[in-house]
Every structure is written in C-alpha cells, then in structure tokens.
Design a protein that fits this description.
Number of helices: 9
CATH class: Alpha Beta
Radius of gyration: 17 Å
Oligomer: single chain
Number of domains: 1
Shape: globular
Length: 227
C-alpha cells in the first residue's frame, strides 16, 4: 500500500481536480483507491443541516471510495478559512487522533491512499501543527499541485523550498489549469517554471480534464516506494 499527500502551492491551485484525476487513473489501472480529506473548511449545509464537504465527496466519487463520511473527511467546518481559524470559530480544536484513525482504516484494503490537504503546505491546523507537519507525522510523500496562472513561479518554488527545509519527500509537481483560457503571459511564465523546476514534473491537467497528460499512476506509486 502507498499513501500520497496532495498539497497545493496556494488555495485554489487545483488540488482536488488533480486528486480526482489521480484517483480515476489509478482505478483505470486496476488499483484499489481510498481517499482521505482530513479537514475541509468552507462546507455548505445540506437540507438536513449537516455540513457537506464538496471536495471530499468529489475525491470519494472519483476513487469509488464508499467509506462513511466520517472516515473520508473527519473534520468539517463552515467558515472558509484556514483549518485552525475555522475550527476556532466553532469552538473546536483539531486533533491528530481522528485523522490517524481514518488513515489507518483507509490503508487496510487499498493499493493507494490519496490524502488531500487544505490550502497550502504551511496552512495552520492547530497550535504547533500545519499541513507540512501533518504530512511529516504520517511520513507521506508529496505531490505538489501548482496553478498555471501568473504567480505560480514564486508560489511553487517557495512550496518546494519549504518542503525541502522540513525534509519532506516531493514526488513531483503537477500543473492544474484552473481556468479555461490562459494568457500568453501565463503560458510563458509557466514554461519558464517548468524549465527550471527543481523537482520532477508529473504533467498538466487541462481545465475540466479527466486525466493528467503524461502521468502514469503505477509509475507514480513505484516512485513513492511501492506498487
């Protein structure tokens, strides 16, 4: 079994789209996939008043993961803010225990477990704990999702630098096109980033595409250390 942590260079970089594409590709390759979105903020309320984690549900659907919602997404909050902030707004504190239990359950019968963070790598979860710390706690290698628009050079390089500083293993960078149209400046900017990228380039996910061009999920698992 292999578990991979999908993080982004910032909020809205396209983590969920890339996570879903990875899940679909792995399933198509015959792998049993489980997903975990430990914390989701900005959840809407359903007709019954319960918080609905749209990203977690999208991941579960892509993976064919029919586990209970409490396992797929242990922590759900309404405020669209950093997890620590969203939890505090409801008088709650996020603890590692429920996340560890959910991950342990997900790994029982999976070839691949995709764990998606919230926001970027240094987003705070609780006092003394951020997304980087969460990945480190469970020894999860990273797939970094970068957006294709202006600003991606700085955001991506800073994320990779932060990962290196914390001794986190980066499997590679996937670029997500979060908009249908990108300017010539966007494309040229992205091309420069890819030419100088100090990490493996995993491929690009076109806007609303189902697969990441050039990415072999079995090869990614092999890179992560198991198949």
């Amino acid at each position: 079994m292999t578990a991979i942590f999908v993080t982004g260079t910032d909020t809205g970089a396209g983590k969920t789209a890339v996570g879903c594409a990875l899940a679909r590709a792995a399933r198509a390759a015959g792998l049993h996939v489980r997903v975990l979105k430990p914390i989701e903020t900005g959840c809407t309320r359903g007709a019954d008043g319960a918080l609905v984690p749209a990203d977690a549900l999208a991941l579960a659907a892509a993976a064919g993961d029919d586990a209970p919602l409490a396992r797929v997404c242990p922590y759900r909050f309404a405020l669209p803010a950093a997890p620590e902030v969203a939890a505090a707004a409801e008088g709650a504190v996020i603890e590692l225990g429920p996340i560890a239990d959910a991950l342990a359950d997900a790994t029982k019968d999976a070839d691949l477990v995709l764990v998606e963070g919230a926001g970027g790598l240094l987003v705070p979860i609780a006092p003394g704990l951020d997304m980087a710390g969460l990945a480190a706690r469970f020894d999860l290698p990273l797939v970094v999702v970068a957006r294709a628009s202006l600003g991606t050079i700085n955001h991506t390089l800073l994320t990779l630098e932060a990962a290196r500083a914390r001794n986190l293993r980066v499997l590679g960078v996937a670029v997500s096109h979060t908009g249908e149209v990108h300017s010539d400046a966007d494309r040229r900017n992205l091309d420069l980033l890819l030419a100088r990228l100090p990490a493996r380039f995993l491929g690009e996910l076109a806007h609303r595409a189902d697969r990441i061009a050039g990415l072999d999920p079995v090869a990614l698992l092999t890179l992560a250390g198991s198949v």
